[in-house]
Write a structure and sequence with these properties.
Largest sheet: 3 strands, antiparallel
Radius of gyration: 36 Å
Shape: globular
Number of strands: 5
Helix content: 55-70%
Strand content: under 5%
């Protein structure tokens, strides 16, 4: 039954049509517009949120690529035919992706789950189309910079990996929805099912419920006024059940309002129904605003509603779904005046603001803000002592908790701290870079630090600061490099050679911070070559063979990553690693055993595989490999099985070659003439010295 219903439902929900594109648009303009549209698509709140965010993030990484091509084209009106042919497939793939993202953003969340097979197929098609388009890009003809090319190759690698991976659908979630849809659920489990559905469908706030209601309404209106059918009616009833559940558990939320007609108070004290202009309504409550305020994205909301939104932990604008740079609320005096005028014109009592609004706890209290502002003013002081003490205090404040980190960043501390990284006072420099490290721990601050151009200054400290400052600079780069986009930027600033130096000569903590940063950065393929050319492999091999075992875990993790790079594999192979790897496979920790097997597997593929396989066999690798295949981690088992197969083929081949060689020797012995049998000299009779005595004398 469910299968038949799914077929009937398929096609009822269509993606909102993309905006019309002029036929004269070049492929480059289509690429640029699609990337810009994806960047502005906002947040996705449905069951496919993870897949949609991943696709959106990868496309946004193509922004510098489109911008560089735009800037290079001169004059703007000219269209290069080669470039047009090269970019046309990518433009088409991006437009398909944008269509899918719009469906994920605007479509009915409930209907999208019912159509999961079609949606997942769309994801696979879009990813495959994008991956193929990037694979076929003629980089030399496009004449783009190495940095941008590396970023495009990063996106291509991610898409290639995503194409090979098939997401497993959440069957429990789907079955919950089907049971509620068909009313086949156990009544005692209804509340638990509704709670799971509310969470996984992201139907939690009044905005979520209103958007889903509008999406279902859009499905009805797109049918041209025809009967919506049983499927949409059932989905509407399902939404009502979820809404009733959510409102029961959150009574303060109130019912979502979708009508434009509001009840307002007339000047004589009686209620009156009137259509309120959309611009006077709060986008969250849909009611006439009493105290309109502007948020960081430029949108206006009723103060009480947006304060509740922020207090519940949201960091995005409800309308645009963009991340808000700060939580400052600015009164919209112009709109408040217009609302008052409209009320007077329509004989309505102007809405009154609450004299003491129920404000949530602000991100930063007035006393805290005053203290931070005082410290920031000292950072700008010409007195080195004041600068040093202020930087030290900010360092301690940022260390205490996430609340302080956010407050300090919002007060504008990041640019001021960056300016102190070039200070001639090493202690001030150390405090400043450590304060930035503590601030970077908060996810919201990473983008602010990177957008302020922090990396070159941090690398300067990494090269020239005191040992503690260098250690904390390395830790800062590690903290920032957890974001994929930043790996490319950090790697291109000269950070990797400086980290290699710190790994060589730093303290134990400094080496650990440097190793962590290098591991993160080398996840990106373009940074592996930089690390190898900076001399990382011999240094890592020294750690692997170090009898103390210090930093062994970090060293093997880095070695595993570098071995997948052609230059890395050659450098590792030249360092005689096989005995140490065999030892680790047999006696290392579970993680080091699997990494050692991974490195060994890379070495045993390619030109030098026979050399490494021979050496591994000589070191007795078969026994530890069999044990790892039985008792290792899941990844370790896979690597061990692959290695065992290669070793077995190698040994069979060696045996066949020996047997073949033996047969050739035997055949050669039969064909060649035998030399005459040699008689030992002592067995030769003396008479043979003269043949005359053997015969009668003829007279």
């Amino acid at each position: 039954m469910a299968g038949d219903r799914e077929k009937a439902a398929e096609g009822e929900q269509q993606a909102p049509a993309p905006p019309p594109r002029p036929s004269t648009s070049s492929a480059l303009e289509r690429v640029a517009k699609a990337v810009e549209a994806v960047a502005a698509a906002g947040e996705f709140r449905n069951a496919y949120r993870r897949q949609l965010l991943a696709l959106s993030r990868r496309i946004r990484l193509l922004g510098p690529f489109a911008e560089e091509l735009r800037e290079r084209r001169r004059p703007p009106a000219r269209v290069d035919e080669k470039e047009e042919r090269a970019l046309a497939p990518l433009a088409g793939a991006l437009e398909k992706a944008l269509e899918l993202l719009r469906l994920g953003r605007d479509g009915s969340r409930i209907s999208l789950v019912f159509e999961r097979d079609r949606i997942m197929k769309k994801f696979q098609e879009v990813i495959a189309q994008l991956e193929q388009a990037l694979c076929d890009l003629p980089y030399n003809e496009l004449d783009i910079s190495d940095e941008v090319r590396e970023q495009v190759e990063l996106v291509h690698t991610q898409l290639k990996r995503a194409k090979e991976r098939v997401d497993t659908p959440d069957d429990e979630f789907y079955n919950d929805l089907i049971s509620l849809y068909n009313k086949t659920y156990d009544p005692s489990a209804e509340l638990a099912i509704l709670e799971r559905l509310s969470e996984k469908l992201h139907l939690i706030t009044i905005t979520d419920l209103t958007q889903e209601s509008l999406a279902l309404h859009e499905m009805v209106t797109s049918g041209g006024g025809q009967d919506p059918g049983e499927h949409i009616e059932k989905m509407s009833m399902l939404l009502k059940k979820i809404k009733d559940f959510v409102q029961t558990h959150n009574p303060e939320m109130g019912p979502p309002m979708t009508s434009k007609v509001s009840k307002v108070m007339e000047s004589n004290g009686e209620q009156k129904s009137i259509i309120v202009p959309d611009e006077f309504r709060c986008p969250i409550s849909l009611e006439l605003m009493k105290d309109p305020v502007i948020v960081a994205t430029g949108q206006t909301y009723e103060r009480l509603c947006i304060e509740k939104w922020l207090a519940s932990g949201h960091h995005t604008c409800p309308t645009t779904q963009q991340r808000m740079a700060n939580t400052t609320l600015t009164p919209n005096y112009v709109l408040r005046s217009l609302i008052s005028q409209w009320c007077e014109t329509n004989g309505i009592e102007p809405p009154k603001r609450s004299s003491q609004p129920n404000k949530p706890t602000p991100a930063c209290s007035s006393s805290e803000r005053a203290n931070i502002d005082g410290l920031l003013s000292k950072l700008c002081s010409p007195d080195p002592e004041e600068q040093r003490s202020a930087a030290a205090e900010l360092r301690l404040l940022a260390k205490r908790n996430a609340h302080n980190r956010l407050c300090i960043a919002e007060a504008g501390a990041i640019p001021l701290l960056l300016s102190l990284l070039s200070s001639s006072d090493l202690r001030t420099q150390e405090h400043a870079v450590t304060a930035l490290l503590n601030l970077s721990i908060h996810e919201d601050n990473k983008a602010s630090i990177m957008s302020s151009g922090a990396v070159p200054s941090v690398v300067h400290v990494l090269k020239n600061g005191s040992m503690e400052a260098r250690e904390n600079a390395a830790a800062t780069l590690f903290s920032l490099s957890v974001v994929d986009e930043y790996k490319v930027q950090i790697g291109g600033t000269g950070a990797i050679p400086a980290l290699v130096v710190l790994l060589s000569e730093g303290s134990q903590r400094g080496k650990k911070d440097a190793a962590a940063a290098l591991f993160n950065l080398c996840i990106y393929q373009g940074n592996k070559g930089r690390a190898i050319r900076a001399g990382l492999v011999p240094l890592i091999m020294g750690l692997v063979t170090n009898p103390t075992g210090a930093l062994m875990d970090e060293a093997m993790a880095i070695l595993s990553i570098l071995s997948s790079h052609q230059e890395g594999k050659a450098a590792i192979g030249a360092a005689e690693p096989i005995p140490a790897l065999v030892e680790l496979i047999g006696n290392g920790s579970p993680r080091n055993r699997e990494n050692a097997a991974a490195v060994m597997l890379h070495l045993c593929i390619g030109e030098q595989q026979l050399v490494h396989l021979t050496r591994a066999h000589e070191c007795g690798i078969m026994v530890p490999l069999r044990e790892l295949a039985l008792n290792g981690t899941e990844r370790g088992k896979r690597k061990a099985v692959q290695l065992l197969e290669r070793m077995s083929r190698f040994l069979v081949q060696q045996q066949e070659e020996q047997e073949s060689h033996s047969r050739l020797q035997a055949a050669s012995a039969q064909v060649l003439p035998q030399p005459p049998e040699q008689v030992p000299e002592n067995e030769i009779p003396d008479q043979l010295d003269s043949p005359a005595s053997q015969y009668p004398t003829l007279l």
